[in-house]
Amino acid sequence: MLAADLAARKLGLRAGMPVAQAQALVPGLTVMDARPEADLAALERLALWLQQRIAPIVALDRPDGLVLDTTGADHLHGGETVMLRDIVRRLAASGVHARAVAAGTLGAAHAVARTTRDMAVVVPAGGLRDRIADLPIAALRLPENIVAGLDKLGLRRIGDLDHAPRAPLALRFGPEVALRLDQALGRVDEPILPVRPVDPVSAARAFAEPIAAAETIARAIGTLVPPLCSGLEARGLGVRRLDLLLHRVDRRAEAVRIATGRPVRDAERLARLLCEKIETIDPGFGIERMVLTATLTEPIETRQHVSALVEQEDADLSGLIDILANRVGMRALYRLAPVESDVPERSVTRVPALAPDARAEWPGYWPRPIRLLPHPEPIGTMAMLPDHPPAFFVWRGVRRRVACADGPERVFGEWWQGDAELATVRDYFRVEDTSGARFWIYRAGDGEHGESGSQRWFLHGIFG
Amino acid sequence: MTQPDTRPALEALRAQISRLEGRSGRERAVLPFGVGEIDRRLPGGGLALGALHEVAGGGADALHCAAAGQFAAGIAARATGKVLWIVTRADLFAPALQQAGLSSARVIFVEAGTDRDGLACFEEGLRHGGPGAVVADVARLTMPASRRLQLAAETSGALGIAIRRWRRQADAADFGQPTAAVTRWRVSVLPSGPLPVPGVGRGRWLLELMRARAGESAAFEVEACDERGRLALPGAADRLAVPAALGDRPGAAASGRGRASA
């Protein structure tokens, strides 16, 4: 048996078990021959898919892993943790059960990913050594016979190995033990050989002398983009993801990825987006080769513009959106659209900045506060009759006397969201204090029935 | 300087200065408030387009900038085209923006994690010229930063509004520091006008024009933005039977226009 998933492990099956034993444990077990070549091909397809969507550098970690260098790309996905969760979720949607780990080195990420139970783990830069010290040596990518040999010597954890004297180990097992340990701890660099998409549109340039200055890199980008764009033009394509790989003289590769909201083939715009990222590049001792690859492309549709006589068309903002999205990330750029819900915090949803306009509006019968607090804050009030707002309230330590008020506006719980909301009610009041400050406060409950809410008062928004 | 000066020597000198400042040939476009008393105090008869303006909340509103935010929303609503709104805290409530005349389809929000990113996005938005107005929450605005923003706005003709929003009340003292903004406003809430029935009337603000380039400072008591983003003077609104914030919908545009020009 080659592999066992969760369902199989529950039945008592383990990887490495003879087939006869497994069949004895589970009668009627279907047995299929392993096809390592097909597995590898599928892994390669997955690698290319991840390269298009997540990060520019993706390599195979045979037989069952993928390595991503996300240094130049995590800003597009809203940070490392969000990105890892997103990867696991998207893989799960396509039926792949995966664990994602972000760590400072390939070796450490490999070790943690194969020993952790969590779906997504981020190993902080300073805690790398402590995090892997307790892991078994088998996680270090060493051949089985070496692991068994080390086990005989009583070395079982990576931490033990780190403290053991090196020379005798090297004499007995060869240089690999120390190399793998150093790679995991980041003492030795490990180049990643990325997979290449089939027949990509790309442009490359090698330099006779390594370059490092920002201006020189910018000039090199300027010479790389036009040939790429003419390559795209020949195929009628535009760029959605563009990767710039900078191969350094010390065999490491720096990567810059830019993403665009719509397919782009404008050389000036692409060069501008790339140049904005120059400050994130660490040229080290110099860059000897630059490769610009259009990783994800889409056909460009040319759209006929409406005649200017009919209506003035809004300026095209996609260029600005791309510039901003590459700075703050796609998630931080949005429009707000109405949702049919009377509960204020549910009535707004975020849609992509370039999404088509749904032409929906919020109902405007009642004034709404310009600032809505992220969470309603409890306020102290003097109890009043059910239909009345409080005479005064205390919010953030300031006591305010209510001069006038409007309300109540009753918001009912949405029973389709869950049974808990079946009877709940909020009564909103718009109150003005004696200084003129206007607030949106509500009582959780209708003031009479206990099941309608806690009857406590909250401040939810501030009017202008 | 409420009366336009007609002395020829002074006019020639002004023309020479504006030529030196690099905007000769084209007259500065403005966005009038539609309230005569305010527009008369502003050079050019309105809020200059292609310029940076600063808005802050007065008193306790310096932290929440509710009135200041709505004031900015009203201005952005009356500008043309899309609006880029850069926020540091995502607590703007879009239904209220719609009630100030700024429909959700027109506003693109950018959530900037740091002040540095926020200022960079602000500058990009102003320089691009696509959005008609760019509004941004800005805590610290230094002279060099504001000058960059002002130059970016000048090249594209977009209206830039910096909502000065601090995290601590003590930081609000920063508002006295000089910046390159063309005007500087402070909006404080006042008790709303009395109604014939119990309830809260249309919001009322004390609008202080603290600084205006080539103009003088002034203070106005105004009624808050209506559903098209227009301000009004308190006297004018009293003539209407229904308070605008409660009753008016976009259909009632005719009555609103009468109020704005009054």
Automatic annotation (TrEMBL), chain A:
**Sorted alphabetically, which Pfam families does this protein's record hold?**
DUF6504, IMS, IMS_C
Domain UmuC stretches: 1-120
> What is the catalytic activity of this protein?
DNA(n) + a 2'-deoxyribonucleoside 5'-triphosphate = DNA(n+1) + diphosphate
Keywords recorded for this protein, A-Z? DNA damage
InterPro entries (UniProt xref): DNA/RNA_pol_sf, DNA_pol_Y-fam_little_finger, DUF6504, SulA_CellDiv_inhibitor, UmuC
The record ties this protein, via CDD domains, to: PolY_like
- Give the EC number(s) under which this enzyme is classified: 2.7.7.7
**Presence of keyword Nucleotide-binding:** no
| Subunit and partners | Monomer.
Q: What does this protein do?
A: Poorly processive, error-prone DNA polymerase involved in untargeted mutagenesis. Copies undamaged DNA at stalled replication forks, which arise in vivo from mismatched or misaligned primer ends. These misaligned primers can be extended by PolIV. Exhibits no 3'-5' exonuclease (proofreading) activity. May be involved in translesional synthesis, in conjunction with the beta clamp from PolIII.
PANTHER family membership: BLR3025 PROTEIN (PTHR35369:SF2), BLR3025 PROTEIN-RELATED (PTHR35369)
Q: What is this protein called?
A: DNA-directed DNA polymerase
The organism is Nguyenibacter vanlangensis
Q: What is this organism's lineage? A: Bacteria, Pseudomonadati, Pseudomonadota, Alphaproteobacteria, Acetobacterales
TrEMBL record, chain B:
Q: What is this protein called?
A: Damage-inducible protein
Q: Could you name the domain of life of the organism this protein comes from?
A: Bacteria
* Species of provenance: Nguyenibacter vanlangensis
